[in-house]
Amino acid sequence: MIKAEKLTRKFGNFVAVNGIDLYIEKGKIFGFLGPNGAGKTTTIRMLTGSLRPTSGKVEILGLDMKTHELEIKRRIGVVPDEPRIYDHLRGYEYLEFIMDIYRQNTKEVKKRIEELSEAFGVDYLDKQISDMSHGMKQKLMVISVLMRKPEVIFLDEPTVGLDAKSAKILKELLRKYANQGVTIFLTTHILEIAEKMCDEIAIINKGEIIAQGDIETLKQGENKSLEDLFLELTAQEEDIKNIVDSL
Asked: Which InterPro entries is this protein grouped with (predicted)?
């Protein structure tokens, strides 16, 4: 469902993503982890067609991004790390706008909007988006994606700004969708979420994937938490010890 070969992105002389390979099967929840600036968001932007790779190949749903970009974008959903929504619209106007773009202005979609709004406690669709908090915008963005039931969903730090109940509902919904065959690609700084939710994890550091596999494979039989493993692989464990000792 998601395939990348030698995916590379350079900004001038800086290599943000350096020749990574990904292969993600249908119905899997795939966690993409890494420190700030490691290349996570750049990778998602290339996989979803909002940023052109410098080199390499992307296939989504078996389709080449270079030749089938519009069809791919019709069939996937993206929740970015920052909800970028038109501030001059009201909540319901934004959802209607999305429905019209994807040609899904149907009774079924409207019913899902009602169900998702109730689930996430969204009772402010008549409110101007410019007056909404980050968390309110995040919920609106999540609803605008889930209401379409896309075949592949990309989420960049999806729980940031969400209250505990909404975050829990989102996690349970993603697992339900994965069980129904939807493929989920998510980044998160909350390693507990990745450890509990993800079928497979890749860790990226300085633009390169340094580890990949399911949790047990990554741990290699050692009794370590994902947090400890992550800090060890990204060479941050010693830095933390030195910082704490110096304080």
From this structure: AAA+_ATPase, ABC_transporter-like_ATP-bd, ABC_transporter-like_CS, ABC_transporter_ATP-binding, P-loop_NTPase
DSSP designation for 128: B
The verdict on domain 2-246 having CATH code 3.40.50.300 is yes
Those residues with Cβ within 8 angstroms of residue 164's Cβ, 6 or more apart along the chain or in another chain: none
- Residue 224: what are its φ and ψ, rounded to 5°? -125, 150
Position 27 scores a pLDDT of 96
Residue 244's pLDDT is 67
Tens-place pLDDT, residues 171-221: 999 999 999 999 999 998 888 888 889 999 999 999 999 999 988 888 776
**CB-based burial of residue 9 (10 Å sphere; 0-12 exposed, 13-18 middle, 19+ buried)?**
buried
Q: Are 152 and 61 in contact (CB under 8 A)?
A: yes
Mean pLDDT taken over the chain: 91
Q: How many CB atoms lie within 10 A of CB 184?
A: 25
For residue 82, CA distances in Å to 33, 65, 155, 169, 210 come to 17, 24, 11, 20, 26
The angle subtended at Cα 195 by Cα 245 and Cα 137, nearest 5°, is 95
Here the tokens at position 179 are 């069980």
Q: Which residues are bridge partners to 55 per DSSP?
A: 8
**d(C-alpha 20, C-alpha 207), whole Å:** 8
